[in-house]
Design brief:
alpha/beta, 7-stranded mixed β-sheet
Amino acid sequence: MKAIAIEAFGSAEQLKEVEMAKPSIKEHQVLIEVHAFSINAIDWKRRSGKMGGKLPLVLGGDVAGIISEVGAMVTDLKPGDRVFANAARTYAEFTKARAEVTAKIPDNLSFEEAASIPLTGQTAWEALVEQGQLQAGEKVLIHAGAGGVGSLAIQIAKHFNAYVAATASEKNQEFLTSLGVDRFIDYRNEDFEHVLTDFDLVLDPIGGKTQEKSFSVLKKGGRLISLVQEPDQEKAASLGITGTYFSMSPTGERLQKLAQLLAYEAIKPIVTQTYTFTQEDLRKAHEQIETGHTRGKIVIKVN
């Protein structure tokens, strides 16, 4: 099968087309014929060597496609099913995934739309609903609202009837307003910590000074959920708030919940750029995600 791999850490130029054997699956896994996969920030960080890893390396974290084969212990999925999943090594024509982190794609979604969901969608859901314990009517601040996680987090928060403030650049104001944001903040020209107060929850995918300033917008009993670094626990305790850092662990149950929301169009995928499955396009996609200013998700169409 065709795959795109790196044989050395470095720039996007290290992404190269290779031929390799199809993966073999174990009893609790499924083999997926890849129709689309998305690009995530963690991909370029791994490519650059920031996270180590054994070379040669096929990158990737989520996928959409058709099941080609199921393991002996898989009972709820079958060959021919349209599925999306959290999986490793998805920059390929075939990939394997654990059945427990694989779910059927709603009929109203294309493969490209479905591929944009597993990693960012589950991260947004776990951050707000599981870690953040979001309740109806609460006030939520979502940083980097135009990004892959942020754009889905806004929609999930609105599904819970939350009041949502979000930070982004001015060019994304109309986009975020269309997602339901109640208070847009152009982070380049407005200091969110000076205009927001008494919030229940902050979702922080940025860290650093942004996280530090976020403490001041939370009321006593509020929660700060970070995707990037451990919040200052002494400061949190002194303010009577909770600070949590987590790394998402995928589950099929969570992915199925997202599938239901997508089926009823309570949330929608945000795919803003689609590329072909070539080393040239993969390099362009990596260069884009590496800027840190990508709206929604970048998806690669394979079949």
